Amino acid sequence: MMVQGITCVVTFFIILLGVAYFVVTERKVLGMIQRRHGPNKPSLVGLLLPIADGVKLLAKEWIVPTAANQGLYLLGPVFFFFFSYGLWLVYPVGNPMIYFKLSVLYFLCMSSVKVFGVIMCGWSSNCQYGLLGAVRAASQSISYEIGFNTLLYCPLLYIGTYELYEVRLFNGLFILISVEVFLMWFICALAETNRTPFDFVEGESELVSGYMVEYGGFGFTLLVLAEYGSIIFMSMITAVLFFSVCSEVLLLGDMMMVVISVVISYMFIVIRGAFPRYRYDKLMELCWKVILPMSLSLFMLFMATGV
């Protein structure tokens, strides 16, 4: 029991460190895409930037607006952070710290509840921009979760399990069977993680950072860590579902899964640098008129063929 607790703590801090350096990687890659200098001042080529940012943010005062609902305002970032990092309990590593029999269902429950943290942050701040960001988060998450969940069941029907660790042990590239499922899944993942071109929840150009506009210091740090942690976890889930390459040597298999997850995370960054923000009505139209009918059709096709 003590070993499992230590493993959870070590894994938690490794994930936090990975998220911090993922933020630096994003800033440097966006700098290269836009042909400008990225962060390069702190230490060697900006490698100590996460530490500098962390110290700066944690040293700032967490100011609560006078008109805000103080309890919910302080609880919102903690709620969002807790459910974002609670997903990592089902990380399908060679020696899992906690074994879930139905880990896919746990993933669906945690990812759907997580949006309440965003709603709590936007509504409790009693700010028009924050409220609009929260409303957008609710409608966007509810809309895309339907297609997202339907697409998730397509590879699960093929593999025949609800356990992520068993999915990872299934030695087969599902993307070779159904590329269209992967493409729609990735679009839904972008919408679920509020990433460009579907970053309407933050909407810097019109909502001035949306639901987190009133947050600073430690609260803002929790929100950013939770958001980027969700991106990395979604990349890992994508790697397990569509690029399941297993190895008899557990350490080698873990390393291969990490490399594929990093490549998918890099795709999130490249898409942010390459595509402009979508229009909100087009976002909803894409979900209800394109992705939902196609995902249901593919789901029924997989069921009918008995795969």
TrEMBL record:
Any one GO molecular-function label of the UniProt entry: NADH dehydrogenase (ubiquinone) activity
Pfam families: NADHdh
Domain of life: Eukaryota
GO biological process: aerobic respiration
Coiled coil: none
Membrane topology: Multi-pass membrane protein
Protein name: NADH-ubiquinone oxidoreductase chain 1
Protein species of origin: Nuttallia olivacea
Gene name tied to this protein: nad1
